[in-house]
C-alpha cells in the first residue's frame, strides 16, 4: 500500500485538495501515507479507495485527518541550544544592524515558538523598546492551532521548559493555566498562511521555520526555500529544525551555525534572480529588492532571456507552471522543453530582436503535466540595455484560459438565447391560438352563465313559493293535529260514555248500518265492534231475531216515539235470553229528521 508512486493514493490526495482546498500533493509520501493509514485504521477502511468513500460520506473525518497530518508538536524553547545561539548571537547582531526588526515564525503551531522569540527579544531590549522595535508575524495553515496560539493560555506542563524567571515575568495565571501577557501578546500577529501556495511575508530579518519544511517533498521544499529567500532581507537569518538539512537551499543560504541549523541569506545567489536591466553590482538603486520581489511574485509567468539565449530569470508562477527549477537559470533556452512547447518561443524572440518590437502569439493551447488544458497569450518584449544594445527579452505567458472559457460560455449562452428566443416565439404563437380558443370558450361560458343566472332566479322564486307553501302546510298540519286531538278526545269520551252504560248499545244510521257497537254488545253477542260496524243491522247474525227491530227502528227514524220491544233470543254462549230493546232517535244536523237510531238492549237469562 505504501509504495513510492501509488495512483490510488495520489487520487485520494487530489480528492482532499479539491474537496477542502488542502493541497498535500507536495508533501513527503512515506510520512504522509503513514498518517493517512493511521486514520484509515481508526475508521476501519482497508484501502485508499475505501477511505476516499468514507471521507465522502463522513465530512467530519476531514478534521480528524488534518489533525493527524499537521501534527502540531511544538514547545517553548524547543531545542534549547538553538535558542541559546539565537539569544546570544543572532538577536544582538540584528539589534545592532536594524532599528526595527521583523520576524516571521512560519509553521508556528499553537504559538510556543513565536512567544519564545518574543520573550528573547523582550529580554534583550527591555519591554518598552521591544514593543517599539520588534514585530513578529506567526503563521500556520492550521486554523485550530492558530486559535490556540491567539488564546495564548498554556498549562504548567506546557510551560515546563520556560525558565522560572521568564515564566514569572511574562505569564499571568489564567482560568486553566497561564496566559502570555496581553501587552506583549499584541506584538505577535497571527495569520493563516499556506507555505505551499500563499505568498511569503516580506522584508523579514529573522525567519524561524522549524520542523515544518520536513513535511514537504523536495520540489516543494525548493519552492518554499525560494520564497524564504525573497522574504528575507539581505543578511537575514533563517532558523530551521534540527532534522532539516536544507540541501535544496545551499546556493541561496550560507550556513551561520550548521549544527544549530541557522543560515543566512546568501548574497552570492542573488544574480540568478536579477532582471538584466538592473544596474551592475555596486551601483545599487533604491527599491531594487522590491523590483526583484515584484518580478518574482508577478501573477503572470515570466522568463528573462539574455542576448546569448540563456535563461537569466524565471519567476515563481513560471517555475510552478512549467516545472522549471532554480538550477535551470543559466541554461541555454533551447535545452528547455519550454523553448518549443507550447509555442516556438525562439522564432518569437528572433522576430522581437529583428523588429525591436513586442511579438505576440495568441490563444496558444497547452496541456499541463496533470492533463489540464490551458490557453496562453505569449508575448516577447525587448528589454533595453545601456545605449543601443538590447539587454535581453522578457517572455510572458498570460493565462487566457478563463478568457477563452468565458468566450465559449458567451457563445454557448448566445446560442441558448437564440434557441430560447425561437422557443419563445413559437410559445407566443401557441399562446395566441390558445387565447382565441379561450375567448370563444369565454363567450360560451358567458351565455351559459346568463342561462344559469335566469334558471337560478326561477329556482329562487320557486324556492320562495315552496317556502310559503311549506309555511301554509305547517299551519294546516298544526290545525290537523289539533283536530285529531279533539277527535281523539271526542272518541275517547264517546267510548267511555258507551262503556259506562249498563245496557248494550247499538247505533245505526238512517240506512240502518251499524255505526256504534258498545263493549257490552260485544260481551253479549260475541261480535267485536270492528266486525259489526258497517254491517246492515238486519243482516247481523247474532242471538237476537233482528227482523223484529225493523219496524220500531223505521218509526223512530220517522220521529215516532216507540215503546220498548221484548224479544226472546240467546246470548253468545247459546243460553236463552229475554231481550228488552228501547229506541231513541240520534240527533243530527236537521232537527226535524233524526240521523239514526240508538238501540239500548237489556238481557235477562231465562233458564
Ligand atoms: C511540527 S509543527 C512545528 C511547530 C514549530 N515550528 C516547532 O518547531 O515547534 C509543524 C507545523 O507546520 C504546519 N504546517 C504543515 N503544513 C503547512 C503548510 N502547508 N503551510 C503552513 N504550515 C504548515 C502544521 O500545521 C504544524 O503546525
Describe the fold and architecture.
By secondary structure, this protein is α+β, with helices and mostly antiparallel strands. The chain has four domains: 63 residues, no CATH class; 194 residues, Rossmann fold, CATH 3.40.50.150; 105 residues, Beta-Lactamase (2-Layer Sandwich); 105 residues, PAS domain (Beta-Lactamase). It is 44% helix and 21% strand. It contains 18 helices and 20 strands. A hairpin with a 2-residue loop joins strand 4 and strand 5. The radius of gyration is 62 Å and the shape is elongated. The site of S-adenosylmethionine (SAM) has 22 residues, from loops.
Q: Strand-residue fraction?
A: 15-25%
Helices, by number, come to: 18
- CATH uppermost class of the largest domain: Alpha Beta
Average pLDDT reading: 87
Q: Which residue ranges are poorly predicted, with pLDDT under 50 across at least 5 consecutive positions?
A: 268-288
Indicate the structural class.
alpha+beta
Bound molecules: S-adenosylmethionine
CATH architecture of the largest domain: 3-Layer(aba) Sandwich
- Using the alpha-carbon principal axes, give the shape: elongated
> Using DSSP, what is the number of strands?
20
* Total separate domains: 4
Q: How would you characterize the largest beta sheet?
A: 7 strands, mixed
- The main sheet orders its strands as 6-2-1-7-8-10-9
Amino acid at each position: 500500500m505504501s509504495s513510492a508512486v501509488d495512483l490510488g493514493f495520489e487520487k485520494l490526495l487530489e480528492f482532499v485538495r479539491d474537496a477542502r482546498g488542502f493541497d498535500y500533493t507536495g508533501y513527503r509520501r512515506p510520512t504522509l501515507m503513514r498518517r493517512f493509514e493511521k486514520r484509515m485504521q481508526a475508521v476501519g477502511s482497508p484501502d485508499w479507495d475505501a477511505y476516499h468513500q468514507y471521507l465522502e460520506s463522513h465530512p467530519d473525518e476531514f478534521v480528524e485527518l488534518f489533525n493527524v497530518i499537521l501534527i502540531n508538536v511544538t514547545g517553548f524553547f524547543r531545542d534549547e541550544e538553538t535558542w541559546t545561539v539565537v539569544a546570544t548571537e543572532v538577536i544582538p547582531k540584528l539589534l545592532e544592524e536594524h532599528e526595527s526588526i521583523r520576524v516571521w515564525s512560519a509553521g508556528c503551531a499553537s504559538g510556543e515558538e513565536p512567544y519564545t522569540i518574543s520573550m528573547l527579544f523582550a529580554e534583550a531590549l527591555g519591554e518598552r523598546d521591544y514593543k517599539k522595535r520588534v514585530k513578529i508575524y506567526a503563521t500556520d495553515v492550521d486554523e485550530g492551532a492558530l486559535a490556540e496560539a491567539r488564546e495564548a493560555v498554556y498549562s504548567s506542563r506546557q510551560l515546563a521548559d520556560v525558565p522560572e524567571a521568564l515564566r514569572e515575568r511574562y505569564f499571568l495565571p489564567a482560568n486553566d493555566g497561564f496566559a502570555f501577557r496581553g501587552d506583549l501578546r499584541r506584538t505577535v500577529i497571527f495569520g493563516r498562511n499556506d507555505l505551499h501556495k500563499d505568498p511569503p511575508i516580506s522584508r523579514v530579518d529573522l525567519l524561524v521555520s522549524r520542523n515544518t519544511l520536513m513535511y514537504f517533498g523536495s520540489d516543494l521544499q525548493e519552492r518554499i526555500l525560494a520564497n524564504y529567500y525573497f522574504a528575507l532581507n539581505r543578511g537575514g537569518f533563517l532558523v530551521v529544525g534540527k532534522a532539516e538539512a536544507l540541501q535544496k537551499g545551499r546556493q541561496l543560504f550560507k550556513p551561520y551555525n550548521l549544527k544549530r541549523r541557522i543560515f543566512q541569506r546568501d548574497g552570492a545567489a542573488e544574480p540568478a534572480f536579477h532582471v538584466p536591466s538592473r544596474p551592475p553590482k555596486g551601483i545599487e538603486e533604491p527599491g531594487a529588492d522590491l523590483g526583484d520581489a515584484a518580478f518574482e511574485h508577478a501573477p503572470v509567468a515570466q522568463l528573462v532571456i539574455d542576448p546569448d539565449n540563456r535563461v537569466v530569470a524565471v519567476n515563481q508562477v513560471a517555475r510552478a507552471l512549467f516545472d522549471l527549477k532554480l538550477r535551470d537559470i543559466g541554461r541555454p533556452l533551447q535545452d528547455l522543453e519550454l523553448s518549443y512547447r507550447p509555442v516556438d518561443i525562439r522564432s518569437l524572440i528572433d522576430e522581437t530582436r529583428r523588429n525591436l518590437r513586442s511579438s505576440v502569439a495568441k490563444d496558444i493551447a497547452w496541456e499541463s503535466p496533470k492533463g489540464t488544458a490551458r490557453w496562453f497569450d505569449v508575448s516577447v518584449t525587448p528589454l533595453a540595455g545601456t545605449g543601443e544594445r538590447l539587454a535581453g527579452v522578457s517572455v510572458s505567458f498570460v493565462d487566457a484560459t478563463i478568457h477563452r472559457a468565458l468566450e465559449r460560455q458567451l457563445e454557448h449562452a448566445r446560442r441558448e438565447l437564440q434557441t430560447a428566443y425561437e422557443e419563445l416565439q413559437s410559445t407566443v404563437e401557441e399562446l395566441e391560438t390558445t387565447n382565441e380558443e379561450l375567448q370563444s370558450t369565454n363567450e360560451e361560458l358567458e351565455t351559459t352563465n346568463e342561462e344559469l343566472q335566469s334558471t337560478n332566479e326561477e329556482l329562487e322564486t320557486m324556492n320562495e313559493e315552496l317556502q310559503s307553501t311549506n309555511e301554509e302546510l305547517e299551519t294546516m298540519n298544526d290545525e290537523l293535529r289539533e283536530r285529531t286531538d279533539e277527535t281523539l278526545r271526542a272518541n275517547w269520551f264517546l267510548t267511555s260514555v258507551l262503556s259506562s252504560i249498563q245496557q248494550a248499545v247499538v247505533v245505526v244510521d238512517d240506512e240502518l248500518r251499524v255505526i256504534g257497537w258498545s263493549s257490552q254488545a260485544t260481551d253479549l253477542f260475541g261480535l267485536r265492534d270492528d266486525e259489526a260496524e258497517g254491517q246492515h243491522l238486519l243482516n247481523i247474525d247474532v242471538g237476537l231475531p233482528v227482523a223484529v227491530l225493523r219496524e220500531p227502528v223505521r218509526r223512530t227514524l220517522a220521529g215516532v216515539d216507540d215503546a220498548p220491544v221484548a224479544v226472546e233470543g240467546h246470548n253468545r254462549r247459546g243460553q236463552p235470553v229475554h231481550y228488552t230493546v228501547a229506541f231513541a232517535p240520534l240527533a243530527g244536523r236537521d232537527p226535524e229528521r233524526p240521523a239514526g237510531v240508538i238501540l239500548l238492549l237489556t238481557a235477562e237469562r231465562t233458564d
